[in-house]
Design a protein that fits this description.
The complex is a heterodimer of chains A (137) and B (304). Chain A has 137 residues and is α+β, with helices and mostly antiparallel strands. Chain A contains 3 helices and 5 strands; from the N terminus they run E-H-H-E-E-E-H-E. In chain A, 21% of the residues lie in helices and 20% in strands. In chain A, a hairpin with a 4-residue loop joins strand 3 and strand 4. Chain B is of the alpha+beta class. In chain B, strand 5 and strand 6 form a beta hairpin. Classes of the chains: A alpha+beta (137), B alpha+beta (304). At the A-B interface, helix 3 and strand 5 of A face helix 1, strand 2, strand 3, strand 9 and strand 12 of B.
Chain lengths: 137, 304
Amino acid sequence: MPLQALRTIAKPQNGVGAFILQCKRIDLHYCDWAGSSKGMNDFLRTTLPAFAKQNPSIELSVSPRPGRHPVVKGLYINGQHKSICVRNMEPAEILRKVELLTAASGERLRRERRPVKSTNESVRGVWDPFHGHNYKI
Amino acid sequence: MLSLNLKRALLESRLPVPPTFLLPWAASLTTVSHTTGAGNVPPPLLNTVQQVSAEEQAAGSVTRKAQTPKPKRVDPTTTLARSATVAGTERPTTPSTLFSSPVAPLSESVRDLLPLLQAQGSHYITAHIHDRPYLITQGDTVRLPFFMKDAEPGDVLRLNKATNIGSRDYTLKASAPAPKLKSATTTTRMVLDPTTGSLESHSRVMPATSLDSNTAGASAAMAVAPHFIPHIAKGKVSYLDERLFVCRAVVMGMESEPMRMKEKTKRRNRKIKTVRSKHRYTVLKIKEVRIRGVEEIEGGGELA
């Protein structure tokens, strides 16, 4: 009988092969008139260029949003948004928020009880009462 | 049943085993050196060869913690007997093996069974991060219970502390940890003082600590802890040899839990204080779980 290949679909495993950052775009909105946007304006002038250079895979978009508080919004590969209002924040704080958006995935915040999540089959096989119950490791 | 038979067959067939070079998988293994002749071995290494052989023969069935061989789950008496006799005869004639694996030679059971473990399809490993065990296979996602500040998304971490590696039928376990140290006060003894006359006098004697070099009373059973041991470093777990496996994880990013509110108040007191918590956790993806071959380990190549 000739050798037959198994019919399987490739399992997408981000990180096992290549690693792709989940955050693909960050929108930064500022306002020239609002006092709450002062930190944001300074951030855009001073800190943002260096951040952009360090993260070339993220698309950054800066646009004015007059009359409103400054906001940073992240868009993720799974299509979800995360937005953080950065009113009255210093540039260093805003950088921390932007880094938070970079490191996050688009998943909802969830309380995980178990640390390890796996979709692989069990290595030692599922227990059954007929095999090896006398043998203890 | 199949796995039991497999193990029994393995145990029984090991006794009349042909020499290593005749075994099919070990045909390429050789203890003959091609680069270093007996005359070229530098004097310090020669000395260590003789020292190690003397120690091995003297040690017999006692395994030292620092260079402990890692027995698999086979009959322990046969393993140790074989390692003592084989090691004793092998050492003086083959300085090249010591040159290639300078730190610690693999035990017989590991050398025999590691290829079988490696050949089986899937593997799991119990890796320890800050002494907490995680049972992982390749492709798993691990959410650590803490946030790693310096780890950016995309960084690759090498996990080198592990206690178990297993496949379907074989498990490689680390050797037993050292016996628990007792504090000096719990091992205090009442000793009769050598006094003259009919008056008996007892005094309490603490066993010798490492500072007191004269009295050699600290035997292995009565090993005493130094004055202060932090509660973390009590030596509960011993780990596998790093050279046996490769386990890599990628930092995927950070996730946080939903905001938690804890209300703190006392009875009959209307003031309620609210504490908000929103912890952050690092998420890893296990990139690689691989067992290295015997040749790769003993060849002393760089830890890839």
